[in-house]
Design a protein that fits this description.
The protein has five helices and 20 strands. By secondary structure, the chain is α+β, with helices and mostly antiparallel strands. The strands form six sheets. A four-stranded mixed β-sheet has the order 3-4-5-6. A four-stranded antiparallel β-sheet has the order 7-13-9-10, with no helix packed on it. A four-stranded antiparallel β-sheet has the order 14-20-16-17, with no helix packed on it. A hairpin with a 4-residue loop joins strand 11 and strand 12. It is flat.
Length: 498
């Protein structure tokens, strides 16, 4: 294929006279032809991605130097391929050798498993043989000489093998020994009774003479008798620890006490104290113990007259299970904005007030703000509120908002109460239909003072009035104030407990 023809000049753009429109179009056509020929020429050896077209370069186009370099590279690649093939062949041979080794190990494991299976079969056969020995020589003797034994399961091919240190061939036997104290009465200890084994000495320890003394009648009986003795000692031995030579047959060491010993100790600990403290039923409080001694603190008796149990505290008999009396004052205060101090002796929103707090601080005080219980300050730990006993004041750590309701419960213990005389005084009230405030004076014009509306019993025409709702006390405590003026023709009755 020939090279493309270069574009020819059709119009001159450098003359004084500009080219015409037709000349300019013809020039563009010439350029378009040349460009198309160039693109067609390039397509013969260049692909659309810019790389050389496949098979566009032949042997004639390659220089001798490039041909030699390509041949050298090809030879190197062949040599590397041969080396890799040689390595693969060597690895295959090694893998074949490893497979033979694995097969040899599997065969060895198979042989060991067969040996273990044979050993298990032999152990099972030995166990069945010893079971037959027990049935033939031990169980009949115990049945004749002692209480009848419960029927034992018959010999069975499925009899489980024993496990533990006493199982045949499993684990070493203990190294300690103990001198057997002798069999129970009527159990002979002669050479004949040992199955003809003159070497039998009567020394008993785990697996003495073999499993249950196999081959020695007396040995088997001795082991069974010794275990029976161990069981007896575990249950009944007194008054100290179980002897070590008894427990040694079972491999148990250390100090141990019997069930009877523990039961005795428990009975002494509880029953002894109860016998010492309980004075029994009495028609009146006892002044001495039944033996005439001093009543110990914590002593108890049942009063058959009062039908109750009482306990001695060292100075008096107190009810054993009767709740102690106490009194609780419940106060409700309507807080103002920013208020923190609430004096409990000041009437609350219902006209109720608490007595001055006890100086010893023994009263329990609970404070609730808008239904949420607050946490008291204890020592140096500051919480929601604190109490000043001297002024009977509850102080909040944070100021309240207007309209908040503070509830205070004051619990006064029974010890704070003492017998006293209460005077009932009738307050003089003369209704006129308009007056709501009446001074606290009796019919002898003696004045009285109170800020606690709950101290009064008030009725109008026989209808009881509610303190804090129907009436309150004046701020100075010298007057009673009705929420509605009693009618002129009504009868008002007011009594103060003073």
């Amino acid at each position: 294929m020939t090279f493309p023809t270069p574009p020819q000049q059709v119009a001159s753009f450098f003359d004084a006279t500009p080219p015409t429109q037709g000349e300019i179009g013809a020039q563009f056509d010439e350029f378009s032809r040349a460009i198309k020929e160039i693109l067609g020429f390039l397509r013969t050896f260049v692909r659309s991605d810019g790389a050389l077209l496949n098979a566009s370069i032949g042997k004639e186009q390659i220089s001798p130097e490039i041909g030699a370099e390509i041949a050298k590279t090809a030879v190197t690649m062949v040599e590397n391929a041969l080396l890799s093939l040689k390595t693969d062949v060597s690895s295959a041979k090694s893998a074949s050798l490893d497979a033979h080794a694995v097969l040899a190990q599997v065969q060895a494991l198979k042989n060991e498993a067969q040996q273990a299976l044979n050993a298990a079969q032999e152990a099972k056969t030995e166990l069945l043989r010893r079971w037959e020995f027990l049935q033939a020589h031990v169980f009949p003797f115990l049945t004749q000489k002692g209480p009848a034994l419960r029927a034992l399961p018959p010999q069975s091919p499925n009899l489980p093998m024993l496990t533990g240190e006493f199982a045949p061939g499993i684990g070493p036997s203990p190294t300690f020994e103990t001198q057997y104290s002798g069999p129970p009465e009527s159990v002979p200890m002669t050479v004949e009774d040992t199955g003809g084994d003159a070497s039998y000495t009567g020394v008993l320890y785990p697996q003495a003479g073999g499993f249950y003394g196999a081959g020695q009648n007396a040995g088997a009986v001795a082991v069974a008798a010794d275990y029976a003795q161990v069981s007896i000692e575990w249950a009944e031995h007194m008054p100290d620890t179980i002897p070590g030579n008894v427990l040694a047959a079972t491999g148990v060491t250390g100090q141990h006490w019997s069930s009877r010993w523990w039961a005795t100790q428990a009975a002494a600990a509880f029953g002894g104290q109860m016998a010492y403290l309980y004075l029994g039923p009495q028609p009146f409080p006892p002044t001495t113990t039944p033996a005439g001694g001093t009543i110990p603190v914590g002593a108890i008796y049942y009063d058959t007259t009062l039908n109750g149990t009482y306990v001695w505290n060292g100075t008096a008999w107190e009810p054993f299970n009767t709740p102690q009396k106490a009194a609780t004052s419940v106060l409700f205060y309507a807080a103002t904005a920013g208020e923190t101090n609430f004096v409990l002796t000041t009437p609350d929103m219902f006209g109720n007030a608490a007595q001055a707090l006890l100086a010893d601080g023994s009263q329990g005080i609970e404070v609730w703000l808008n239904g949420a219980r607050l946490t008291p300050t204890q020592g140096t730990v500051v919480n929601d509120f604190s109490v000043n006993v001297a002024t009977s004041t509850v102080t909040l750590a944070e100021a309240t908002q207007a309209g908040a309701v503070l509830a205070v419960d004051v619990l006064t213990p029974a010890s704070a109460f003492a017998p006293s005389n209460v005077a009932l005084v009738k307050i003089k009230i003369v209704p006129d239909g308009t007056t709501t405030t009446f001074p606290l004076i009796d019919y002898s014009n003696n004045p009285y003072h109170s800020v606690n509306a709950a101290q009064f019993l008030v009725a109008v025409d026989g209808v009881p009035q509610n303190p804090g709702l129907d009436y309150t006390m004046s701020g100075d405590g010298n007057s009673i104030v009705f929420s509605t003026a009693p009618a002129a023709d009504s009868t008002a009755f007011a009594v103060i407990a003073y």
